[in-house]
Design a protein that fits this description.
Rossmann fold; N-terminal domain of TfIIb; 2 domains; about 30% helix; single chain
Length: about 240
């Protein structure tokens, strides 16, 4: 989420559990698990690891010797540390070391501008071992236009969240407004979070990696797929 500010990243971290991400995650994680299960690898890096749930599940299911997460949100890094996962608050391009597998889960790439995406994918290739794989998922055009757009309101006893979003010229803009209860008063936080539509062909072109697989993903039971699962290889 490099083009979004630290404040917007931290605000998202505070409300992620209200957005239905955890409920949809198992269906998405299954695509990663099914691909990784039959291949041999010892190191996995998850970029934009969030709260660490994906790394925990992959490590447990696949018994991976070495997993690591990185994220630009200090709050997310703190949550991942609670799972006992090796994690850093650092940009991929500033990280040292190479890995057999690199992942970017739950439309992480869509948060990058085109220039950021190009730079990011170059760094992915540099951080992959020969024969390594990069697994990610991106939002489809249908997902942006028919699933993500609109107004969303949710609350629990401590938080009231509204999200107002639109999608124009391949740019998705979502205004998050959070009222959080503190000492019987509500503190307001407001941030704009942006995403961008990209095709599988663009990922291949910008990365210089080989397309190994791409599968449609339907997380929310709409008529068409809202995400695409993509695997690229360094051959």
């Amino acid at each position: 989420m490099a083009n979004n500010s630290t404040n917007s990243l931290d605000l998202y971290a505070k409300v992620e559990d209200l957005l239905g991400v955890k409920e949809a995650a198992p269906s998405l994680y299954a695509h990663y698990l099914l691909f990784l299960n039959p291949i041999d690898f010892t190191t996995l890096l998850d970029v934009g690891c969030g709260s660490g749930d994906f790394l925990v599940q992959m490590k447990q299911a696949l018994d991976i010797p070495q997993v690591k997460g990185i994220d630009l949100s200090p709050l997310m890094v703190a949550k991942t540390k609670e799972h006992g996962i090796n994690v850093e608050c650092i940009n991929l391009c500033d990280l040292e070391g190479k890995y057999d597998v690199i992942t970017a889960v739950f439309d992480m790439l869509n948060y990058l501008t085109k220039e950021e995406l190009k730079n990011f994918l170059v760094c992915v290739k540099e951080h992959l071992n020969e024969g390594g794989t990069f697994l990610c998922d991106i939002n489809t055009l249908y997902g942006f236009e028919n699933v993500a757009v609109g107004s969303f309101i949710v609350d629990d006893e401590e938080r009231f969240l509204t999200v107002d979003s639109d999608f124009e010229e391949n740019e998705y803009r979502a205004e998050f407004t959070l009222f959080k209860k503190e000492n019987n008063l509500y503190k307001k936080s407001q941030e704009m979070i942006k995403q961008y539509y990209y095709s599988v062909e663009e990922l291949v072109k910008y990365s210089g990696l080989e397309l190994i697989a791409n599968d449609d993903v339907n997380l929310y039971d709409f008529d068409e797929s809202d995400k695409c699962f993509v695997v690229l290889g360094k051959m």
